[in-house]
Amino acid sequence: MSMLQSMKRRSWLLVPASRPDEVEQAASSGADVVVLDFSEFVAPRDKAAARARAAAMIDSLHARGVQVFAQTDSVAMTEDVGACVRAGLSGIVLSRAESAQQVRCLSAMLDTREAASRLPRGAIAIVPSLETARGNRDGYDIACASTRVWGLTPGRADLVMDLRPEPSGELHLMPYLMQRLVIVAGAAGKVPLGAWWRAPDRGLLATPENTYQAGVRGRAIGFRGAMCLLPAQVKALNEAYA
Fold this sequence. Notes:
By secondary structure, this protein is α/β, with parallel strands linked by helices. The protein has a single domain (11-240), classed as Alpha-Beta Barrel (TIM Barrel). The chain is built from 10 helices and 8 strands. Strands 7-6-5-4-3-2-1-8 form an 8-stranded parallel β-sheet. The longest helix has 17 residues, at 47-63. It is globular, with a radius of gyration of 17 Å.
């Protein structure tokens, strides 16, 4: 196992980059990784202001010993990566990753930005988020598209829209897709991230106790950490993936 893969990344706290107060709370949450989100939870009208504050937020989090990732998507990669690449940024979460070409494009962009920022080449990792049917189908190719890819994570919200839920509220393909992601990540030599949520939890918004149980189940099938949205969930994930 490489040194990069062995890094402690149990809890990944997603924080909208447009909310400085929540970013400040995240810094003291105990999360191994804080993910500054520019894609899922930031209104279009707030994106420019969030990018303008990105450097200061990354510097502040890094100074407090927090690993920092930024979450973007294929539509806004250029703007988000341009705002975030600097010393102190550990990686990029690529939301709704659907092709190896998207990952290669992001990797080439990071090559250029790292050189301009005088960072070591390959310093910034990539974690593709497989949130659609196409992304899950091409998961292995996505994982192998760049040596920068550190891990893979599943998505839930887009899968609900893409694959449709059963009347019970459980996604009929979710257990299969999560197990498949663990296998794909293992075959590609990457780290699988995820937790095994149960209805009626809405995953990222679950109670701390249910988050802990989801993490324990996730660890049992091979996941090595998971995303969350609430600071109160961080301790539960750290304990579940200890």
